[in-house]
Amino acid sequence: MTTDDLTSYVGRAGDETEVRRLLGEARLVTLTGPGGVGKTRLAGRVASSVTRAFPDGVIVAGLAELRDGTLVTRTLADCLGLHDTAARTALDTVLAHLRDRRTLLVLDNCEHLVGWCAELAGVLLRQCPDLVVLATSRCSLGVAGERVMPIAPLAVPPESARTVGDAIAYDAVRLFVDRATEVLPSFRLTEDNAAAVAGLCRQLDGLPLAVELAAARIRALSPGQIADRMSAGLALLTTGARSLPARQRSLRATIEWSHSLCTDAERAAWECCSVFAGAFDLAAAEDVCAARLDGFAVLDAVDGLVDKSVLLRVEGATGVRFRLLEALREFGQERLAAAGTAGSVARRHRDHHARLLAQADAEWFGPRRDEWFGRLSDRHADIRAALSWSLREAGEAVVALRMASSVIEYWLARGAAWEVREWLDRALAVAAEDAPGRATAQARAALCAALHADLEGARQRLELAEAISDEDAVPYVCHARAFVALLAIEPHALENAAEAVRIFGERGEVRKQLHPMFIQAVATAFRGDLAGARRLLDVMLHLCESAKDESYRSMALFGLGTVEIFFGGDLGVGEQAMRDALEIDLRGPDVLSAAYRVDGLAWASARREDWPSAARLFGTAATLWERCGAEPDIAVSLAHRELLAATRGALGEARFEEAFAEGRRRNPHDILAAPACSEPAGTAVLPPLTRRESEIARLVATGLSNREIAVRLVIAQRTAETHVQHILNKLDLANRTQVAIWVNERAEPGSGPA
After folding, report:
1. DSSP per residue, 561-603
2. Are 428 and 441 in contact (CB under 8 A)?
3. What would the pLDDT profile of 442-463 be if each residue is shown by its tens digit?
4. Whole-angstrom Cα distance, residue 144 to residue 151?
5. What are the Cα distances from residue 706, in Å, to 163, 550, 711, 719?
6. pLDDT tens column, 400-427
7. Residues ≥6 apart with Cβ < 8 Å to 97
8. Which residue, 211, 361, 464, 506, shows the most beta carbons closer than 10 Å to its own?
9. How far lies 7's CA from each of 10, 162, 178, 728, 740, in Å?
């Protein structure tokens, strides 16, 4: 939704008012209309204008990139920043998060998944009484209580419009002039061209996408020449596609005309790049286009398609990427299918993402971990699409097994353990019994099941893995066996973990040693050998520091903190280890790990019998557990339960709840701040922004990226992106620099933007 709003917004004031009115009357409003009519833009504008009515936030779930209906709910959980580590489904997690919140949920581009979206919307509306849903779709959802609002194209001038004054009064003409000026700054609507522009907008039925595609040609053609060529294109299409409604024929003609005016290389790139579900970079485009174009030709073709407004340029933290609007992507897919090349291009797409995951797996352990997490997150829609294709094509499930098994930490960091477990299970269901990697995939699926406290499911998968004679899988099986035993407080956790550490070490796979080494250390402490546990964690810390890997270093510090605090070691050492781990986690997006660390600091306060501090820390941890949809019942369950109960008992119910509530309101960053640290200056609301938007605007003004803002405020990155887009829309600004200027102009003397 956000990339379409990089350009200025024209018209729709009346539509905005009507949608807002409907949202005040109904809990499900669906904007319908043909592709290219502007449903997404309108929904985004309305969502930005009603934030005050929804104090718990506006959530935008874009579904255009999704190809698998089973992942609709998981995608919504992703947008909410929820992890699926608790022993419940993604739907349970989403319901628990939204049930008591006054929230607006925007489900954008539902038409290709309408059944799944209707089912989800129905459940959410029944069980979340304060939730309101705004959907966009080419057809209604068909849910009880739905109010459907058809979105008409922009108003066009009548045939009598000949003058500038007559033409510019209509939104379609204003849109054409606006986009034409972006392409050719010297363009002006004049008495000489006003009639041609008005006629062109009529030919295009005022469809915004069609108008924008036509305006992109203004550098090479005059409005009259564009109108002449469009007339010919419409006549041809009307002859060959009478079954299409008039407006769809107009859009179709515009797209075909744009396609015909591209060079051969540009047409090839357009068609091949339609295989991407989301945004893609130049390297990915070069891979999928390689059968028809060489690398230099792809660069030139992509540049030409951006110039012609076929591709949108998307600036991101991981570099420049490109995206096709959905109507243009569908057209490219049709061309591929007609040529019989859709399968070969999809294979190239899958192979590119399989190589990407393999490269991430090889480089994950070390200083590039956060970079790889960002790159894979940006490409998550296409990773899903590549997995889906592999499961549909005969004989390709073995590649899906390898892809889903490769960089398991990525899925866990996303909070998507359940999703990768489903990919593994689906691949195992269709892969040959003798498929290579089958035993390893079963062991990986067992590890994910254990993360959901599904110990029986984990044991079943381990039995299946062990029934396959595969030496390569042995350490993976030992690792999962050790984790299950640790969680169940059963024997042999230590022995299995030690065996996994040994075999991975002999293979030189240091990264794969680390989680088993953590398990081994905790299991050693359970047996009363604190010195042995410390030695193992020291080795783990040394391996992490040598590789400059902060994520696993945080895990080692957490292990040290657990050993010292819960098993009767040096309380000061344990507390400092927890603080050091938390400092690492708060620099990145891993809210779940931060929840563990704050919980650990609560244990330390409880051990010191500083009960008010312990209660506050348990409260802060509870907010983090809730924020990622998880519960403290994995790995820290025993310590959490015992010390939480002790804190509650020592304070009494009333004092505990008061301190707990105070902790819930605290930002976890403040835990690491010096006691005398005061609140930052400039916390007042900046009208017309909400308090949260004002806070984010100030952070934008300090130069923080969306990801850094998300980390600072402990919110999902998509939530930060949505807030920033709302700020741009409300203030009618085009970029972050303008936001910074706007904030600084309103800063109190001496206070700065923050």
Report:
1. HHHHHHTTS-HHHHHHHHHHHHHHHTTSS-HHHHHHHHHHHHH
2. yes
3. 999 999 998 887 899 999 999 9
4. 21
5. 46, 21, 9, 9
6. 999 999 999 999 888 888 899 999 999 9
7. 80, 82, 626, 629
8. 211
9. 10, 28, 9, 11, 19
